């Protein structure tokens, strides 16, 4: 049952990315990020109100204080990445988060990867190479990596993956000091609050521009809320690494949506690359 829930979550994530990418065609990225987070907050309010109010322990306030600005920056960069690159190229970069966790965990927690984790890293790196394999036919064997680094959206999404590897630890603190759904609601709410002055500062058209893409932005918020609910339900049935690994199937769905809906090219290489990166995530989660 939890696998079905997380496959639904993965599909919702890919569809959310599609709607966000469509939104930035008529709305500035910072306003898109604000509207998407506001919509998610509103949709999450419904299931949270159905739960009893959790006891908030002291660690909750520290975690929410740190999460607000960090998530505001991360999600803004996320939307900027979708604006700057093909969906089928940018979205798979998020599978690099476990790779960064294997780098940051030894520094923060003193945990080191075992051989399966090393193989998982190799799959993620190899998958990122395959994403741009067509470039290798035109020049140096290293051209796929160079092309990836020249792509602004891919670079930004790699930065997002790294920031998520840091914020994952903050999420753990927040979840332990409140109920899961209440934490997620508060995290998105505080993130929206932090994004509000960012819109005033960075936007030339203000908040009213979101009326240009109301359906897409509302859909993005709804799909994120559904993802959060599915993930929280799945976590009651399976451990975190398994749940997050299946969620990363969103990379494969994103490549397919980029090809089917946005008519993006090089679908074979990008689908193979995304699939290989997901295999790497599974190896790290299940065996690493």
UniProtKB/TrEMBL annotation:
It comes from the Bacteria. Gene3D superfamilies: 1.10.3730.20. SUPFAM superfamilies: Multidrug resistance efflux transporter EmrE. Residues 1-132, 153-285 form the EamA domain. Keywords: Membrane, Transmembrane, Transmembrane helix. The chain crosses the membrane at residues 59-79, 91-109, 115-134, 154-170, 182-203, 240-262, 271-287. InterPro entries: EamA_dom (IPR000620), EmrE-like (IPR037185). One of its GO terms (cellular component) is membrane. Pfam families: EamA. PANTHER family: ACYL-MALONYL CONDENSING ENZYME-RELATED, SOLUTE CARRIER FAMILY 35 MEMBER G2-RELATED. This is EamA domain-containing protein. It comes from Fundidesulfovibrio magnetotacticus. The lineage of its organism: Bacteria, Pseudomonadati, Thermodesulfobacteriota, Desulfovibrionia, Desulfovibrionales.
């Amino acid at each position: 049952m939890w696998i079905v829930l997380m496959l639904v979550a993965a599909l919702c994530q890919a569809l959310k990315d599609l709607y966000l990418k469509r939104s930035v065609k008529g709305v500035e990225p910072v306003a898109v990020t604000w509207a998407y987070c506001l919509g998610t907050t509103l949709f999450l309010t419904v299931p949270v109100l159905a739960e009893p109010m959790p006891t908030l322990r002291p660690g909750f306030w520290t975690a929410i204080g740190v999460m607000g600005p960090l998530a505001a920056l991360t999600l803004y960069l996320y939307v900027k990445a979708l604006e700057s690159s093909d969906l089928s190229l940018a979205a798979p970069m998020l599978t690099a988060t476990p790779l960064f966790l294997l780098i940051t965990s030894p520094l923060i927690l003193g945990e080191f990867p075992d051989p399966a984790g090393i193989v998982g890293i190799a799959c993620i790196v190899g998958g990122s190479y395959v994403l741009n394999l067509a470039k290798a036919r035109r020049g140096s064997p290293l051209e796929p990596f160079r092309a990836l680094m020249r792509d602004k959206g891919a670079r930004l999404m790699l930065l997002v993956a790294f920031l998520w590897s840091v914020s994952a630890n903050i999420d753990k603190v927040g979840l332990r000091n409140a109920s899961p759904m209440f934490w997620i609601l508060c995290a998105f709410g505080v993130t929206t609050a932090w994004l509000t002055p960012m819109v005033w500062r960075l936007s030339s058209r203000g908040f009213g521009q979101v009326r240009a893409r109301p359906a897409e932005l509302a859909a993005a918020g709804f799909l994120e809320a559904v993802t959060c609910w599915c993930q929280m339900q799945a976590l009651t049935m399976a451990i975190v690494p398994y749940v997050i690994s299946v969620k990363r199937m969103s990379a494969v769905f994103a490549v397919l949506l980029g090809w089917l809906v946005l008519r993006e090219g090089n679908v074979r290489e990008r689908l193979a690359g995304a699939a290989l990166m997901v295999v790497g995530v599974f190896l790290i989660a299940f065996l690493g």
